[in-house]
Amino acid sequence: MNRINVMFSLRQGLTMFGRAPTAATHTAPARTPPARAALAQLSIVALSVFAVPGGVAAQSPTPATAQQPTPSLTPDSVADYQTLQQAHQNIDADQLHPANVSFDPGWWQPLVSQPIRPEDPSAGLTLDDTLIRALDHSKQIQVFRDLPLIRETAIIEADAAFDWTAFTEARWDDTTDPIGNSLTAGGDVQFFEDHRLSARAGLRRRTRSGADLELYQRLGFQDNNSQFFVPDPQGTARLNLSFTQPLMRGRGSQYNESLVLLAQIDKNVAEDEVQRQLQSHLLEVARSYWALFLERAVLYQKINSYIRGKDVFDRLNQRREVDARLTQIISAEATLKSRASQLVRARAAVKNAESRLRSLVNDPTLYDVEIIPIDLPVFESLPVELDQSINIAFQKRPELNQAIKNIKAASVRLQMAKHELLPVLDLVTNFYLSGLEGEGQAFDAWANQFDTGRPSYGFGLEYEFPIQNRAANARQRRRQLEIRQLRNQYATTLETVRFEVEVAARECMTSQTELSTKQQAMQARAAQLDALTKRWQQLPGEDVTASLALENLLIAQDALAGAEYEYLQSQLTFKLSIFNLKRATGTLMESRPIEVCPTDVPAEPGAQTDHPERHAGKPQPQADQPPSYISELPPADPPASTIRQDNSNAVDDKQPWYRISGMR
Q: At 70, is the pLDDT very low, low, confident or very high (cuts 50, 70, 90)?
């Protein structure tokens, strides 16, 4: 309370000397009136009160025996609670923004679209033109749009696990081994010499049911020194078909296609990420566009403030020999120099704003040119329904789509972990045809395999189960914890989205009201300056009152410049609040003449491309719909107002590539 009272007293003191403080951002420091000594003394008193420890002690509980600090102001200077509440309600009622209020666009608006540097080439841009240029040229957007393309390759990679694989192998063996058994080669042969050439070729693949299928043809030639090897040499052939089907772990298309499904979900999450990043980037481009508008308007405001000060200085300089006092001329000249120095900073601010916009757009045609914003702020009442905006955000925000799809992916991983708890039980089968021919005629043996003898076959079971199965149990526990974590993250995202929409909607409504009050403040400052100008012009120059009037006039000029800047800032705040509300509700892309459309990306020279026609006869990845067992999972518990249906995660196989472009 001490700080509030002293500041209130300080404001009263400044008002008594004709210098009420103003929030003059981008304006020159206020001129010091002749009563500087009194103001300095009042400031010292204020600082001394701030330094008193009692001001801090008054905010914390004190013992009953402690001496309470003496109030710095009398109770008569502070209103009671009822009066403060009544005044607060009256202020709110006075500041309600009526629907039929007309806003002054400001004298600076027509000037903003005019070149500032006539010697340089210029480029006039509307906001939509700027956004489209950013979509076409921004390197950051190119980073975003490549993400789904990268994730798309993971789908093909996962689905390629079920493709056919061709293989071939050849081997030559020349062995010489000592004989320890006379039945090996017979007679007095001491070393068994064997010469063998074999080759095979075939196909293998893994089916979507989890089975391993292999078909190959083998041809061979063999010659050795054994007396029992008949015929010698001989040609051999064998056509072999093997099939291994899991009966427990690894069985079924749902489990084996889970990696494909996870890759599809991951790609759809990347598309949502592109939407999120794209909206954020376009919002930043819009902010930079209106920031450039702001800096150009501020430059013209400062030029106009300089002209006002120059008119006063010229008038005093012309009356130097009549009735103008030297102190008045020096005071006006100091104000003029101060305002001239501000123009240097304002020009640099305009160039900095252009550079910022160029860095976001990356259009090469905008370099070394003056960027001129053509669009002007349009002031129209925008009704905002908070509940409706929240519901739209729950349906449109990419973050929620990402959270839902991450939960789906975690559910798929959990079902995979449950499936991997099963033991290994495989059905193993093998069928083959074989042929034999003398004189090493392998091709004749290949023909004999189809018309000599009968097919051979074999089958059996393989069982395997790890003791305690700790790895699979730990994996399942981890997947369960991940789902719980993602559900909590989804609830957190819901609350974050709700908070952002509430703030954006409240800011939109507040900026409308602020726009009206700032306009009234600017009009009041303009009336004040007009009255003080007439009064100063009518007073004789040698009068002390004329010196005070001059100081008040210069202060009023700075106050009007500050009010104009605040009104300009409120104009752009209102404009950007609408943009921010659309981004918060996830409808920024829908509100602009822009769309994200698919296109084919041209292949780089020497690069291998994947043509859809090559896979026409092959099974394609299924749509991003979770398997039936995922529906058995208990659903997350979102708030009642956030129940929504997500149909945005289907993969369109007809659109394998994407490009972001603009449409008028």
A: low
